[in-house]
Design brief:
By secondary structure, the protein is α/β, with parallel strands linked by helices. It has one domain: 3-Layer(aba) Sandwich (Rossmann fold), CATH 3.40.50. The protein is built from ten helices and six strands, in the order αααβαβαβααβααβαβ. It has helices spanning about 1-15, 20-30, 45-55, 65-70, 95-105, 120-125, 125-135, 150-160, 175-180, 195-205, and strands at about 60-65, 85, 110-115, 140-145, 185, 210-215. It is globular. The N and C termini lie far apart (about 45 Å).
Length: about 240
């Protein structure tokens, strides 16, 4: 078992970016762009690795259903039970942030972190004011890649890049968080990911503050939760054979 775990850790260390044709095109495209923050767009896998290294031992994490979240499971490590809250395949977009607020209420002595893409974050970011009003300190990590990544992955895999309603034109989520009375930090340098998370956890646990960490990511796309999401269904009952 240890040999398998070590081999997997080595693979994750070497897997710095997605290697499919669409992602390589997006990496090249994003390399020629500058985020509104003035830094650079980061590879999601490298970001997840840095977040993993900075996680406290007794952390609780909730993940949403975005494309980056679908690969986040490989980078999460827990030492205690009741630590990981995932939406799994239910498709309940916007799940992670309110879930981690509830977890924090149940276990206020434990650090609480949510992961969400910018699409899911748009569905739940107003709960930042809930945290501020009711003194429920949590840390929200938002992967800002300016797209509905899970939907675009399906459109790449099944529709030959014929994109419909996949793009998002967002403002700075860190600025929105500050307007709501929380802390807001934009991260656009890989070396800042770990220290920013540690600082946010310190503020959560010792100052009772909620922090939104907005991470500027490339638009590369990892594997989805389900690769068969839009494949032709198999009809086992004769009366349904004509339904395609």
């Amino acid at each position: 078992m240890k040999q398998e775990q070590d081999a997997w850790e080595k693979e994750l260390d070497e897997w710095t970016h997605e290697k499919d044709a669409f992602s390589l095109d997006m990496i090249e495209h994003n390399a020629n762009e500058t985020p509104f923050s003035g830094g650079e767009y980061l590879h999601p896998r490298q970001v997840l690795r840095e977040l993993e290294k900075a996680m406290p031992e007794d952390v609780m994490v909730s993940t949403d259903i975005g494309n980056i979240n679908s690969i986040a499971n490989s980078y999460l490590r827990f030492e205690k039970p009741r630590s990981f809250f995932a939406a799994m395949s239910f498709g309940n977009c916007g799940y992670a942030f309110p879930t981690i607020i509830g977890a924090k209420m149940a276990a206020p002595d434990r650090p609480a972190i949510s992961y969400a893409g910018d699409g899911a974050w748009g569905m739940s970011l107003v709960e930042t004011m809930t945290c501020v009003r009711h003194n429920i300190p949590v840390t929200a990590v938002v992967f800002h890649n300016r797209q509905w990544g899970a939907e675009k992955k399906n459109q790449v895999d099944f529709y030959n890049r014929r994109f419909v309603a996949g793009e998002l034109d967002n403002q700075s989520f860190a600025e929105i968080a500050r307007a709501m009375g929380a802390e807001g930090v934009t991260v656009d340098r890989l070396e800042d990911v770990g220290p920013t998370l540690k600082a946010a956890i310190d503020k959560q646990m010792n100052e009772g503050k909620t922090t939104v960490i907005e991470i500027m990511c490339t638009q590369e796309l990892g594997d989805p939760f389900r690769r068969d999401a839009l494949s032709t269904p198999v009809r086992f009952l004769e009366k349904y054979q004509d339904y395609v």
